[in-house]
Amino acid sequence: MLPEALVYPIVLVGLLLLLSSLRPAWRIHERASEHSRAWGLIVLLIPGFALGYLAFLLLLINGMVEPTDLLAALLFLLGALFVRLVVHLTEDAFREMQRVSALQVHAASHDELTGLWNRSRFIAKAESLLSQLPETGREQAAMAVLDLSQFRMINQTLGHFHGDLILREAGRRLRRAVGDHQLIGRVGGDKFAVLVERHNSPRRIRLMIENMAESLRRPYELDEHQKVTLGVHIGVATTPEHGRNADQLLRRAEMALAEAKNGAEEIVCFDPSFDLRDSTRLTLLGDLKQAIAEGALMLVYQPQVDMNTGSTCSAEALVRWPHPRLGLLGPDEFIGLAEEAGLINPLTYWVLGEAFRQIAEWEREGLKMRLGINLSVGNLLNHDFYRFVSAQRKHHGIRPEQVKFEITESAVMEDPRRAMEILSRMHDEGYVFSIDDFGTGYSSLSYLKRLPVDEIKIDKSFVMEMTRDDNDAVIVRSTIDLAHNMGRKVVAEGVESQDALEVLKILGCDCVQGFHLARPMAPDVLRHWVVSSAFRIEHLVAPSGKAASSDTDPRPA
Fold first, then answer.
1. Buried b (16+ CB within 10 A) or exposed e, 207-244
2. pTM more than 0.85
3. Count of CB atoms situated within 10 Å of the CB of 524
4. Share of the chain above pLDDT 70, in %
5. DSSP code of 242?
6. Considering the domain 292-552, what is its CATH architecture?
7. Are 435 and 402 in contact (CB under 8 A)?
8. Least reliable range by pLDDT among 105-114, 283-292, 386-395
9. Beta strand extents in 63-202 (DSSP E only)
10. Top-level class of domain 119-271
């Protein structure tokens, strides 16, 4: 009785397994029918197998159950189990394929980091929404493009991990600021775009944009001990004045954003005059890339004079661009463009190489000159900076003490810890450091006194006005006293009058620089000026109070 008692349940279980496979097999057949007919055959075979099971079961009921029947029943069960397993695994595979396909579709249309629409999908969605607006009427839409100021510096100094944290949080804040009914996308590295649609009030659009800016300006918490605050620039373009399609609106909003970044306004609305300026800037950018690559720039040098001895204590290297069409361009006309386009490091590296070459050439001619070179935040904190400087210095055979790097106080305070590490390492090797434009940043004096800097350079805005403005005079006097108390020398730039020179002499300023002494000049002119002019400070600070003859003042390069 034992074989008979086991055979019937085994056959029934196998039959149920087969029947439970039929519906999933049909679903697989529907999904796979375009690519293969095999599952259609399997769907037909499963009922056939089930009929075989029933026939075997009827034979067992009508006859004697032999021990071999138990073996046959087990084989039938294994066959049914195999069919069910194949169907189950195939269904799982299809579900995984669907999941992966959905992720691919999402990835193709969304930004992976923030979950917002990516640029191409944002434009497509915006185009669809804009097409639904009436041709006439008071309803309008606005495209706003937002950019996080100093974000590139965060990535360079704190790393991409913290940069990603900021971008994700910025995306969340924008969603909360504008709500789910407005279209939001990430259209660039740190650029977000928002389509504010179906509003009949420019004032309401303006308020919403200001609300977005306010949400992005709040501090970003990176960890328990560190917060950063970023500025925001916004460019805006509206329908129908600035365009009716999404691509045109986005492009013009980005042009307005560029104007905001280059000017004093945080929010700038597109103006038709930007079209011409944008074309000019694009051409200028291409010219600048080519000029850097070909070394078609030039350096001029402005001497700094020791107030006690009258000798030239150093000179500052200043870059100029002899543009073939626009003439000689000063740094104010292209440095901002270089920073915006990510060309500031290649530009600075060219300046470093040319300045080091000039120092070596002067030394071969018998002129020992320390040369000041301006650095930006990106230069100082760039991981390749130290290696590049060391390689160039050794290549040209100059000593570290012949090089003075001028850095702004705000640049140092962007990442004080890392700045301290870099400055200390290079200062220990003999490089000289100067804090440039002192008084215009937001530095902590308690931190500055620990920085390995050799001199403080008073910003020209204070020096030029100190003979007319008592507040500026107090700032200059206090800065000189502060620097001397910290064991630093003081350089005053922007000395453009005899009165300013005399006041600085009385206040004990160490070195001076400005048009009243000498304009920036070509390297051969500077060598001649230093060697042959027999320049002495008493020639300028004369008892009569009159300025010395300008015969020794060379023409500007």
1. ebbeebbebbbeebebeeeeebebebbbbbbbbeebbe
2. no
3. 12
4. 83
5. T
6. Alpha-Beta Barrel (3.20)
7. no
8. 105-114
9. 140-148, 183-186, 191-199
10. alpha beta
